[in-house]
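Researcher: Going back to the complex we discussed earlier. I've cleaned up the inputs and rechecked each line, so this should be the final set. Can you rerun the prediction on the complete assembly and write out the structure?
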Amino acid sequence: MRALASRASFLAATLLMACSHEQSALAPDGGTARAIYQLFWFFTGVCMAVWLVVMAFMLAAIFRWRGSSPDPMLEPEDASERRISWVVGAGVALTVLILTIFTFASFLTNKSFAEPRPRSVTIKITGHQWWWQVNYEAHRADQTFETANEIHIPVGQPVKLDFESPDVIHSFWVPSLSGKQDLIPGRYTTLTIEADKAGIYRGQCAEFCGIQHAHMAMYVVAQASGEFAQWRAQQLQSATPPHTDQLRRGQQVFQASACAMCHSISGTNAGGRVGPDLTHFGSRMSIASGTAPNTLGNLTGWIADPQRMKPYTRMPSVALTGPDLIAVSQYLESLK
Amino acid sequence: MKPRVVLDVAPLPENSFGSRTLTWWGTIGFMCLEGMGFALAIGAYLYLRVLQPSWPMNIPPPDLLPGTIVTVILLISVIPNYFLEHWARAYDMAKVRIGLVLMTLLGIAPVIVRTFEFPALRERWDTDAYGSITWFLLGLHTTHLITDLGDTAVLTVLMFTRHGENPRRFSDTSDNAFYWYFVVLTWLPIYFVLYWLPRIG
Amino acid sequence: MSAAAEPLRDTDLGESELEARVRSLWRTPRGVIGWLSSVDHKQIALRYIVTAFFFMGLAGIGAVVMRLQLATPDAHVVNPDRYDQLFTMHGSTMMFLFAVPIMQAVGLYFVPLMIGTREVAFPRLNAFSYWNYLFGCLFLWFCFFSNNGPDVGWFSYTPLSLSQYNVGHRADFWAQMITYTEVAGLSVAVIMIVTVFKMRAPGMTLDRIPLFTWSSLVTAFMIVFAMPAVVVVSTMLILDRMVNTHFFDSSLGGDNLLFQHLFWFFGHPEVYFIFIPATGFVSSIIPTFARRPMFGHTAVVLSLVATAFMSFGLWVHHMFVTGLPRLGESFFTASSMAIAVPSGIQIFCWIATLWSGRPVFRTPLLFVLGFIFNFVIGGLTGVMVASVPLDTQVHDTYFVVAHFHYVLIGGSVFPLIAAVYYWFPKVTGRMLSETVGRWNFWIAFVGFNLAFFPMHILGLEGMPRRVYTYSAEMPWGTLNLLSTIGAIIFASSFLLLLWNIVRSLRRGEAAGPNPWDGDTLEWATSSPPPPQNFTRIPVVTSLTPLWEHRETLPAVAGLRVDRREVLVSTLTEAEPDIRESSPEPSIWPLFAAIATGCTFLGSIYTPWAIIYGALPVTITLIGWFWPKGTKEDES
Ligand code: HEA
Ligand code: HEA
Ligand code: CUA
Ligand SMILES: [Cu+2]
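Model: Rerun complete. Updated structure for the full complex:
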C-alpha cells in the first residue's frame, strides 16, 4: 500500500516534470548546441541525399534486367565498361567533394567554439560515483559556496565549467546547451555553456562510470540575471536555523547520527565531505542526482533505504526510528 | 572438373633456406608483431615521459654498466651467429654443432647479466610509472631473450641426436639464427631509451 | 640416388588410384584422438565457425535480455550488476570472440581452396590457435555464468577497471582472456599471410588473386600490426591490478588516456578486421550472381589496401570528448572522412558490376543487397560522428550504438549470412532451402532496421549508452519498445537460419561441385572438398579460372604421394619453387594449448603462475616440435 502510494506520488511528480526539462540535442537552447544542431541537419540532409542516390542506382541496377533471361556468362564490352568507369569516377569525385565540405564545415564550427569569450561565472564541477559536486568559484572566499546536482546559470552569459574527478571518468552532458566533455582523473578539462532562454535543462553523465551510471543526472537552471543573483545570494547564506521543535529534533538527529560524518550543512557542526552538501537541500529539485523528485515522501524513502531507490549508491542506510526519520526529512526539506 | 597436366614439379628441391621457405616468412610475421609490441611499449614510455616534468621521477638515471655489458655481449654474438647461419646453409654438421653450443652460451650470458639490470634501474616496478614502464620494457625483452635461448638449446640437443642429419634441421638452424638478429636488433632502441634518453634530456 | 629409391610420385599412378592414395595420406585419423589431433584447415576452420556462431548466440541472447530490460522505463528484468556484465560480455564476445575469429575462420577454410593448395602454412599452429580460442571463450563465459563476468564495458577503461573500483577478478578475467584469445588471432594472421604469399597455385600472380583472398590477406596484415596493442594494454592493465604497477595511476605518473590511446590504436583497426573480410564475401558473391567478372577489380584491391593503411590513423575519433587539443582532433576528422572514399569506391564498383551484369536473384544476392542498403546508412552515420562538434553531442549515446550496429550487423553480419548461403553447398555438399532463405532475409532485414533505426533518434534525444534503465520522465519509452520488438524479430531470423541449416544438412538438395557456376578455384573441387583439397594442384591462367576453363583444368604433376606435400611458390609470380612437406596430425598442439590456458588462468590468481606454467608449456612445445620419425619429419 505504501509502495503504491509512493509510486503514485512519484508518477504525479514526474508528470509535472515532464516536457519542461529538455535533454535533447534536437532541442538546442544555447550557443554551441544550436550551432551543432544546424551542423547536424546539414550533415543529415546531405547524407540522406547520398543514400537515396546510391539506393536509386542499386535498384536500377537490379531491376534494369528484370525479365531478360540471364546469360550463362557475360564478357564485358570495352565501350560500356568505359562508360561505367566515367560514372563511377564521377561518383568518387563527388564523394571527395562532399567529404571535403563536411570536413571544413565541421572544422569551422569547431573553431568558432574555441574563440575566447568573457565568462562571468566559473563553476567547478566534480564528478563522483554517482553524483555531481558543484562549487561556485569567486575571488573572495566568502563569495564561494557549494551545492550538488543542480547548477544555476544566468541566461545569455557564457559560464565556464572547470572539471575534476577524484575517482573514475565521468562525462558532463547537457545536450540542449552543449556537447559533452569528459572528466578524467589526473587531467584538467573545461567547458563553456550558455543558455539563450530561461528554463530547466536536464543533463546526464555520459561515460560509463560504474553500476549507477544510469542515475547520475543533473539539472541546469538558467535564470534571468536578477533571479540568478538572488539565488546566489541565498546560497551564500548559512542554512536556515530550525524554527519548530520538530525541525530542531531533525537537526539534532542529523548531527548525532552518521549523517553528519558524510554531509555538510553550513552553520551547523555537520561537516562531512563524502556526500553532497545539504546546506540548501530543500531548494533543490531532485534527490540523488535526478533519481527521484525532491518530495518529502521520496526523501523519507531515500533516507530510510537509499539502496532501494538507487542500488549500490555510496550512501548506506542509517538505522533511525520512524519519528526520527520523519523529523530528519522535514528538517532537510526546510533547508531552502 | 578433369585435370590436364601442364607442369611437372618433380625436379624442384625439397628443402631450401631463407625467404624461399615458409618458416622464414612465419618468423618474419612473428617478428613484425613482436616488433610492433616493442614499438608500442617504447611509445608508451615516451608518452609517459612527456607528461612528467622530471624523468626519471625523483631518482637518477639507471646505472649504465650492466645494460652496456648486455649490449656488448649481444653485439659480439652477432658474429658467431652470422657464421652459424652460413654453416647451416652449407649443411656442415660439425661446425653447426660448435656454432649452436657457442650461441647457447652467448644466450645464457646476457640473461645472467640481465638479472643485474633490474636493480640498476634503481627503482621497483611498483614505485611509480617510471618504474613500471622501465621494468615492462626490460621484462618484454627478457622474455624474448629467454624464449630464443630455449629454442637454441633444444635445437642444439636435437643436432646431437640422430634427428640432426636432416636437411630440415639445417633450415631450422638458419631460421633460429635469423631470429637472434631480431632479438639483438630490438634491444638497441630499448637500450637507448632506457639508459641514454634520461641522460640526454 | 638410384631410380628405385626415388619416392613414389603422382606421375606413377592412374587417376583413381592417385585420388585414393592422396586422400588417405591427408585424411584425419578416426576416433577421438584423431579428432583432437586434426590439423586439416577445413576441419579447424569449421570448428572456429561453429564455435564463433555458438558464442554469438549466447551474446545475442544476452542482447535480447538487455533489450527486454530497456523495453520499458524502470524495468527490473535484470539488476544493474547483471546488466553491466551483460553488455560487457555482449560487446567483448561479439567483437573478440565472434566477429574477428569468424572472419578469419572463413578465410582459413576458403583461402587455401581459392589459391589452389592443400593446407595452410603451419597447420599445427593453426590447431593450437583454435584450442586457445576455444578455451578462452569457455573461461570467459564460465565466469559470466558464475556471476563473475567482467562488467566494465568491452573497452574496460581505466580507472574504472583498476582494482580500487573493480574488486574481485572480473576485470582480470577480461584482460587475460583477451590476451589469450588474441594470441590465437595473431597466429592465424601469420598463417594467412604466409599461406597467401607462398602457397598460391602456380600461375596465380598477384593480379590473379581472388578478391576474398586479398581481403583476408589485408586483414591479416592489419591484425599483425594492430593486435599487439591490445595485448600490450591488457597486460599493462593486469599488471596494474595485480602487481601494483602504475601505468594508469595519475597520482604516480601514469595516465588514463594512455589506456585509451593504446586500446583504440587497436580498436579502430579492429572494426575493419571485421568489415574488410565481409567486403571480400560481397566481392565473391556479386560477380557470381551478376554473371560477369568484378567491375574495377584493381580499384577494389587498392581500396582494401588504402582502408588498411588509413585505419591506423583514425583512433582518436573515439576520444573526441576527452579534452585533447581541439584543432589536433580536426586532423582525425579529416582522416576519418577520408576513409569513406575507399568504402565508396567499393560500393560503386559493386553497383556497377550489377548494373552491367544480368543479376540472378538468389538468397546470397538478396543478403548482399540488404548489406548495401544497411551499410551505407551505417557508413554515413560514421561520417557524421567523425565530425568533432557532432560527436560531442552523440558520443556515448545510442546514436553511436546505432552507427556501429549498422556497420557491424548491416555491414558485416549480413554479408556473413550471405556467405553462409553461398558457401554452405561447398562445405556440406547440400543446398540450403531457397524459400526459407527468402523468409530469413526479409525477417532479418525488417527486424534489424526496426531494432536499430530508432536508436539514432534515442541518442539524439539524449539517451546515453550503458544505462541499465531510464526513468519514465524521459521520452524514450516508445522507441525503446519498438527497438526491443525489432530485436526479437531479428533474433528469430537466426532461428530460421539454424532450422534451415539443420534441415538442409539432412534433406537438402545435392549441390555438386559448382552449384552457382562460380569462377574461383574452390568450386573446382568436389563438395565437400576431399581432405587433400585438390588431387592435382591446379595451374592458374586467369583471374576467373573456372569461367576460362569449362571442361578441363590445367594442373601440376610430380608431387610425391608418400608424404603430405605442398607446393611453395614465389611471392609475386607464383612460380613453383620448393616441394615442402606438411606436418601430419598431432595431439601436441592441444596439450600445448591446455598448458598455456592453465598458465593464463593461473595468472589471474597469482603472477607466479607464469613461472610455474613455463615448464609444462615448454614440455608440450618440445613434444610438438620434436621429430617423430615420419616421412614428413625426416625428409
Ligand atoms: C564494421 C565495423 C565498422 C565500420 C565499417 C565502421 C566505419 C566507420 N566508422 Fe565506426 N565504429 C564501429 C564500427 C565500425 N565503424 C564501432 C564498433 C564503434 C564503437 C565502438 C564503441 O564505442 O563501443 C564505432 C565508432 C565510431 C566512431 C566513434 C564514435 C564515438 O564513440 O563517439 C567514429 C567517429 O568518427 C566512427 C566513424 C566511422 C567512419 C567514418 C567509418 C567509415 O569507414 C564509413 C565509410 C562508409 C561510408 C561513408 C558509406 C559508403 C560510401 C559511399 C556510399 C560514398 C558516398 C559517401 C559520402 C559522400 C559521404 N565510428
Ligand atoms: C558484431 C557485433 C555485434 C552484434 C552482432 C550485435 C548484435 C546485437 N546487439 Fe550489440 N553491441 C556490440 C556489438 C554487436 N552487437 C558492441 C561492441 C556493443 C558495445 C558494448 C559495450 O558498450 O561495451 C554492443 C552494445 C549493444 C547495446 C547497448 C548496450 C548498452 O549500451 O547499454 C544494445 C542494446 O540494445 C545491443 C543490442 C544488440 C542486439 C539486440 C543484437 C542482435 O542483433 C543480436 C541477434 C542475435 C541473436 C539473438 C542470437 C541468435 C541466435 C542464435 C544464433 C541461435 C543459436 C544459439 C545458441 C545455440 C545458444 N548491443
Ligand atoms: Cu558518471 Cu557515468
Ligand atoms: Cu573507429
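Model: Worth noting: Confidence is low (pLDDT under 50) at residues 1-19 of chain A.
Researcher: Good, that matches what I expected from the previous run.
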